[in-house]
């Protein structure tokens, strides 16, 4: 079957759908693993039961989420070969290594220790059980590093040479693996992705805690969770802003086209303005409407308000001279709006965190009468002597709940921007996306798999969200005898051979 | 022995690990219909692999990733060529993973029954398809001068490959039944032993036919030796389970899987994907492999990481060494 489409169009749609979907689960998994591990550490150290209840509550949501992350991740590793076989042939010498490292080091870590953690409550002494969730957390972070190093190589290839004399078609070959792992693109992108991941987890915790606190339920656990969530949100939000600025500066140098497209800056300017709003005319190569702040873009690109920033038309011309005739512009509206939605939704979450932390502060600039105990819903205190009225205060909880997904939207647009902003290249300056697809796979096959995955993913999304809602509403579980008396021996205590397992599928 | 030969062996080791570990996982999934009489027994079965199935499946991801890194051409030809079977396998693995995690998370009858159906089918189908895939790899498929698979989906369903599919299906189910006998207590354990003997005999007939066919087609002295080891250990595994020696039986069914994988890889070498159109167009360990530098880095990584993985995965089995029965499954979720 042949459709009137470019050979790469369907394969790109499929990659986009499966990857954005996969990445809905990834940042929440990364952040919730570490946050759950932190809460469990607090339980082991203080023996305060609210921490164990919090661990069990967030841990359950984490497990529902990671299950989806794991299974959708399998597709990611297989589809390079399935839909992008010419890409795999050309870059496998380089791109395959971080993927294999990821499987061998990170995936084994994650999946083995997650099993120990889920089933280990009555089989492992407290501290060893705690170590397991930390191992999972380390696994998720290592996994992120390797895959981001691989992606960074596509953004900015380093440490390789093109081998033309193999007698079977040229390919890129690795010459310096250390350079691939440590180039500034990889390091900055890792920093940015990590902080953005914790933004997701922070907002998730704040939103769900707000849901319960607004109803005055499970107060001690949710009060602690709210605070942890807010602090995470703020640190991660600031980190995302800082790393985003760093990554932007790196990209202005390595992929000027992507950044010019992000700003709809058609022609180079010195100083260059930051665009607030623009409606462009792609065919004519200029904006019809533009609202701008002068000088800011120059600063973002180079740390200097007056410097020159090249525009879309300039870079396009330069690339035509370098790589031959063609259109080297990505989809400008997607890059422009993707960039704005990424920043907008991300920073809205940070703002919510700052407001929340101020309103729920414990002692700083609060009249003694407004302070609350650990088992009370915190007053939302605006000024020293003045709390928000319940009517207005209620809105903070509602907004916190409904903006829970903002960082996820920001993460998705961040990836759509960075991947679509690199087009028409799959490996910047080295390989075009149009020459990366599998020549032997028909469009009918790609279409089939795209429909199958999209349908399956849609069904699973409904199942997963419903399950999350059920367990969110149920709140933290009551602790059992067995929870409070963890075993002292590996393999569990053997007093009663018929005692039911603490957890079973 | 050059590095690409080392990696050929390592890829074989990774597939052995995968078939050994997820082999019994698939078997356990299939037994939920074959052996379990009621829901508590189904849950006993699922929980024998509960803590370990996820780690077991990573052997597949590692085999895939390592093939990508060490033999990019092999990865590209195989994954784009066997497109639809791989799609089916992927769908199964996705649904199966979610089914294990979500089945007990709601009490409704419909919910639990649907996920149980899913566990059975998504274990059965990949158990067949892996055999079909490997049958085709060993037999050779239509690969053109550009290393592209030019056959169709239906070409993959030839008698030899389908027999391979039946072999993996029965062998994994047998392996899983022995595993269940080793990991459970009570009535289900007794029935698992009896069933294992019957399954073992069916497996033996099919596996022997398949291995002899392979030996006649592409075998040499080495593959013959591997074949004999596979045959002897399979007979041993059946005898051991009949005699109630579950541990021995499990070890021997593991050896059977390892020897069978070894035989297929020995029959392949030095090809990794032979072309049925022209032997000159076959993918081999030399023309499909990565550069020596990449292979060197990968070798270091594998040399350090693999023993560690074996160590902590082995430890996991030790932590969960206790047999389980229906009395160990709590009602509440």
TrEMBL record, chain A:
Listed A to Z, the keywords are: Cell membrane, Electron transport, Heme, Iron, Membrane, Metal-binding, Transmembrane, Transmembrane helix, Transport
Question: How does it sit in the bilayer?
Answer: Multi-pass membrane protein
Sorted alphabetically, which InterPro entries does this protein's record hold? Cyt-d_ubiquinol_oxidase_su_1 (IPR002585)
Q: TM segments?
A: 20-45, 57-75, 95-119, 131-150, 190-214, 226-244, 339-359, 395-416, 446-469
Q: Where is this protein chiefly located?
A: membrane
Residues covered by region (Disordered): 482-505
> What Pfam families does the annotation carry?
Cyt_bd_oxida_I (PF01654)
Q: Subcellular localization, per the record?
A: Cell membrane
The UniProt entry's sequence similarity note says: Belongs to the cytochrome ubiquinol oxidase subunit 1 family.
In its UniProt entry, what is this protein called?
Cytochrome ubiquinol oxidase subunit I
Biological source species: Streptomyces omiyaensis
TrEMBL record, chain B:
**Cited InterPro entries:** Cyt-d_oxidase_su2
Q: Where in the cell is it found?
A: Cell membrane
Q: What membrane topology does this protein have?
A: Multi-pass membrane protein
Which keywords does this chain's UniProt record carry?
Cell membrane, Electron transport, Heme, Iron, Membrane, Metal-binding, Transmembrane, Transmembrane helix, Transport
Q: Which Pfam families match?
A: Cyt_bd_oxida_II
Residues crossing the lipid bilayer are 6-36, 82-99, 119-140, 160-182, 194-215, 221-241, 248-269, 297-320
Per its UniProt entry, which superkingdom is the organism in? Bacteria
Recorded family membership: Belongs to the cytochrome ubiquinol oxidase subunit 2 family.
Q: What protein does this entry describe?
A: Cytochrome d ubiquinol oxidase subunit II
Query: Which species is this record about?
Result: Streptomyces omiyaensis
List the taxonomic lineage: Bacteria, Bacillati, Actinomycetota, Actinomycetes, Kitasatosporales
